[in-house]
Structures are given as C-alpha cells and as structure tokens.
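Give me structure tokens for this 214-residue protein.
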Amino acid sequence: MIGPVRRESSTVVVLVGAVAEPLLAGLARSSNVSLVRPPDEEKDSLTAAALVLGQAARRASPYVLVPADPLAEVAAEWAAMWDLTAGPGHAAAFEERAAAAVAAWRAGRFELPDYYVAVTRAVRPGPGAAPVASPEGGLSPGDGTGMYLGPLRAARPGRIEAVVTTADDEGTDRVLQALRTLRHGPWWPPPDELLDQARHFFAGSLGDRTLTSE
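Here you go.
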C-alpha cells in the first residue's frame, strides 16, 4: 500500500528508545533539524504525541524530529507481554492500548510519521570485545524499541532505522547519518493492520539480527 504523500516539504521522524537529553540537545543544534517536543503539561502520552506530530507536520525544516509516539504505550505493553518478569495482564493491556491508538487514528487525531529512528544503547560484553546491541534488548521496558525493531520493521523495513549508541557517545552523529540515508518505500499499512501483525509476531525472532555500534 502506498500511503498519503505529505504536502509539506519536511520529513517527520519519531525518535524512540534510548533517547536522552544530551542526544536531543545535540540534534537541536543541527541546521537541518527542527526538534518538536511534547508539551510538559499533557500527561497522556497518546494525546501529547498526537499534538506534537500535528505541529511537526507544519514545520519547514528538512527533518523534523519528535521524541514522542502515539504507539509508545502499545509498544511498552507489547514488550511486557514477552518479559517473563513483568507479570500477567500485559496481553490485555496491549489490546486496550492498541484499541485506543486505532480509535485515535480513525478519529483523525494523528498520522504515523514518515520514519522512525530506534535508538538502542550498546552493551559491552567484556574487556576487549566490541560493543554490541541486540534488538532483543528492546523487549525490556527500559528500552522500548522491541515492537519497532520487530513487527513494525518487518512490515516496512525502509521506514525504520536502528541506531546504536554507547556510554561515551550519545549518538548525535549516528542519528544525523541515519537521517541522511533514509530510504524511500511503501507507506505504512493502516495502524489496525500494523498492530494486528504485531499480535502474530514472535518476539524471539528479534535475536536473528545483531546491531553493532561500529
């Protein structure tokens, strides 16, 4: 499915995962980037993300970066379903969050961004070893990239870029490089179809790919 073509000249990119303040500050200094943050006073993450995505679509910068996603709570519950330490009830919570997100999309409150950039923190396995990061790390609630690097990337590989950062590098240059290499491709499926694919995606397959920080 080829989706809608934006009339705006900017490319809207949502940042997810290990997105810390030093990274956002570094990106905001780039002349080609406009950073649009969610409002502090809005506590509902779906509403905040919908508002900021609407603002982002009206910016004129080549790249408009948004550190908020209307699917964030859905992604958190998807990860928790596969986390054996998270306890029961997350499958039902996933369905509740998914239904809320789909209802908001159908009501015209948001559209998915042009791209996602999933930022993952590298783990150094031992002295002398290269730092690595597996998408399996996205299954932990503290990372939040599992659903993006799993079912969403499986559905539209060209719409999601993965960036690995390290303890001594917040990742500004890596994210900027990822923006310069974004690929064209089919638009997103409707969110209801996209989340239905997530229901049937085996999280263990995330381990089939390993991301390196080199």
